[in-house]
Structures are given as C-alpha cells and as structure tokens.
C-alpha cells in the first residue's frame, strides 16, 4: 500500500513538473500569448494576472475533468466538450473577476480588460483539452492543470521583470516594444526546451 501511494505521489509530481517546465503551455506550445504580451509590462500586473490564470487553470481543469468523465462520457456527448469547457471556464472566470474586484481594486484596474479575457485565454482551454489526450485520474488532471498554470505564471513573471529593466535601457529603434519582447520569449522558450529530455510523461 505504501509503495502504491509513493508511486501515485511520484506520478503527480512528475506530471506537475512536466507541465510547468518541459511542456510549458506558453513557452512550448505558445498558447496564451495575447495577454502575455499585453499585460507583462510590469511585474506586479504580471504576477496578478498570472496568479489569476493559475487559479482558474487548476480549478477549471479539475471541474472540466469531472464534467467530461461523469456527464459527457456517460451521456455520449463527448463532441460537446469544447462548448461545455468554455462555459465552465467563463463561469469560473466571472467568479474570479468579482473576487479580485472586491479584494484588490488596484489590481482590478491595472488588469483592465484583460481580466475578463481570461475566459478566452487559449492556454486555459488548451490545458483542459490536452488532459483528455492522456489517461489521467482526477488528481493527475488537477496536477496537470496546476503545473500548466504555474508554468504560465512563471513565464509572464519572468518577461515582466525583464521588460521593466528593458524600459530603462536604450535600445536600437527596431528592437523597441514587441520586437525585443518576442526575441526574449524565444530565448526563454529555448531554455525551457532544454528541460525536455529530463522528464517524459
């Protein structure tokens, strides 16, 4: 029993680390680039949106797993998964938006229109769809969603910190703005791909 539990927790840890680093939803699959490029001008807003995305991703991955396995599959409605997943993500995002508005008005105003756009963040939907390609249990799906959200948070925080420093530097005309941001993102993606041989799930 103890060996089985150890294997179970080891599988959760491997899935989590893999989703965070080797299979990073943003730097390996380039999903969620819209809000990543738009909101990452400052570290505080980057972390704020990243935490919101992490929370929504982990929770909706678990919710969508339950909806798919215990509602869509028994009723043979698997073909509706895309629509149902979007509805679940949209409803949960509305809840997160209301919580942020009431607890941190400064963060709510800083995130602006991008907070409702969590609903259409393709990284969140991608996590829910990618987990169906693997024979995950509920807790494995949750670990995958948590790791995927943490990977997105890590990526946007890193670029936010770098962009704050870049704003103080003098850059060649052609590299100002999105140019240097995309170059740094490409270098970060190469660094994360370096982890890919370490863990395979």
Structure description:
The chain has eight helices and no strands. It has a domain at 39-169. The longest helix is centred in the N-terminal third of the chain and has 30 residues, at 43-72. Helix content is 71%, strand content 0%. The mean pLDDT is 86. It has helices at residues 2-22, 33-39, 43-72, 81-103, 105-111, 122-130, 138-166, 178-193. It starts with a helix and ends in an 8-residue tail after the last helix. It is globular and about 60 Å long. Helix 3 packs parallel to helix 6 and helix 3 (43-72) runs antiparallel to helix 7 (138-166). With 201 residues, the chain is mainly α.
Topology at a glance:
Elements lengths: L1 H21 L10 H7 L3 H30 L8 H23 L1 H7 L10 H9 L7 H29 L11 H16 L8
Helix pairs in contact: 1-7, 3-4, 3-6, 3-7, 4-5, 4-6, 6-7
Measured on Cα atoms, how large is the radius of gyration?
Answer: 18 Å
Largest sheet: none
Characterize the overall form. Answer: globular
Helix fraction by DSSP (H/I, runs of at least 4)? over 70%
Q: Low-confidence runs (pLDDT<50, min 5 residues)?
A: none
- Average pLDDT, rounded to a whole number, is 86
Structural category: mainly alpha
- Counting H and I runs of at least 4 residues, what is the number of helices? 8
Following the backbone from N to C, one meets helices and strands in this order, namely: HHHHHHHH
Sheet-strand content, in percent, reads: under 5%
Distance between the termini: 23 Å
Number of strands: 0
Question: In a nutshell, what does this entry contain?
Answer:
With 201 residues, the protein is mainly alpha-helical. It has helices at 2-22, 33-39, 43-72, 81-103, 105-111, 122-130, 138-166, 178-193.
């Amino acid at each position: 029993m103890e060996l089985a539990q150890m294997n179970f927790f080891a599988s959760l840890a491997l899935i989590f680390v893999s989703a965070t680093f080797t299979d990073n939803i943003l730097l390996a699959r380039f999903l969620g680039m819209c809000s990543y490029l738009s909101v990452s001008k400052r570290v505080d807003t980057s972390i704020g949106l990243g935490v919101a995305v992490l929370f929504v991703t982990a929770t909706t991955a678990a919710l969508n797993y339950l909806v798919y396995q215990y509602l869509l599959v028994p009723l043979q409605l698997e073909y509706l998964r895309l629509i149902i997943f979007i509805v679940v993500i949209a409803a949960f995002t509305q809840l997160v938006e209301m919580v942020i508005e009431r607890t941190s008005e400064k963060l709510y105003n800083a995130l602006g229109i991008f907070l409702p756009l969590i609903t259409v963040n393709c990284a969140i939907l991608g996590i829910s769809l990618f987990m169906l390609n693997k024979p995950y249990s509920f807790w494995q799906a949750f670990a995958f969603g948590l790791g995927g959200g943490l990977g997105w948070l890590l990526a946007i925080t890193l670029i936010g910190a770098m962009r704050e420093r870049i704003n103080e530097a003098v850059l060649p005309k052609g590299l100002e703005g999105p140019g240097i941001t995309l170059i740094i993102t490409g270098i970060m993606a190469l660094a994360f791909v370096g982890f890919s041989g370490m863990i395979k799930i």
